[in-house]
């Protein structure tokens, strides 16, 4: 019901005057501002394609910045829920986990991860001083290590993938397949979605959407692996199926975290999408699986 403004007069009563509601931005069935989401997604996609094709090493800097912002968003949301993860070690150590894969490969990533994990434990142990015992130490440290694994560690595989032969094309391949999965899932879900996949976690995700993701991603895998990487097309099928599974799981993991925190988005930086973390949820596990599959089969 719109708000009503009523005026009364003893001699001449006046009719109700209806005040129109403020116009709302158009939203999709997914609950998003679809034009804004498309514009932001297209802009980001074209920018990343240009970077990977012409200045691939710049991708490390762009991805590192995204990892930092995403870590900050998650840590902020956790602390709003009274989960006191150590933000400074997570931010600085997370950058070390991501960046040290460039000069030292997997050894740099593992070493930085272990060192940051230890610093997070000690930091949380003494962050209230030497005379006060920490509360919820086990819970907060475990969630801090989960965050360190979820964002910087999984993202570091994008750096390792980039450093492989034709690494820029490998990164481009995995990003195209994640987009194919998202688009296929959205189209099939909107047009045919009738059977919820996991309604307790994500009510709008359907089995029909999952099948659409599989179709789009397998086709995308066949084309990109054949045309970009000039490799056996069956590798594209394996990669396409694998990325749909882990991208869907990544999306569900973030959905459950947001459900427990009682929030819709991790941030507000990207109109129509939410925060940076809301765009990375499916990309992060996909980077690891892409590195694993392409390193083993190419």
Automatic annotation (TrEMBL):
It is found in: Cell membrane. Pfam families: CTP_transf_1 (PF01148). GO terms for molecular function: phosphatidate cytidylyltransferase activity. It catalyses: a 1,2-diacyl-sn-glycero-3-phosphate + CTP + H(+) = a CDP-1,2-diacyl-sn-glycerol + diphosphate. The keyword Lipid biosynthesis applies. InterPro entries: PC_trans. PROSITE patterns: CDS. It comes from the Bacteria. Keywords: Cell membrane, Lipid biosynthesis, Lipid metabolism, Membrane, Nucleotidyltransferase, Phospholipid biosynthesis, Phospholipid metabolism, Transferase, Transmembrane, Transmembrane helix. It is a multi-pass membrane protein. The chain crosses the membrane at residues 48-72, 84-102, 108-126, 138-163, 169-189, 210-229, 235-253. Residues 1-28 are annotated as: Disordered. Pathway: Lipid metabolism; Phospholipid metabolism; CDP-diacylglycerol biosynthesis; CDP-diacylglycerol from sn-glycerol 3-phosphate: step 3/3. Its EC number is 2.7.7.41. It is an enzyme of class 2 (transferase). Coiled coil: none annotated. Belongs to the CDS family. This is Phosphatidate cytidylyltransferase.
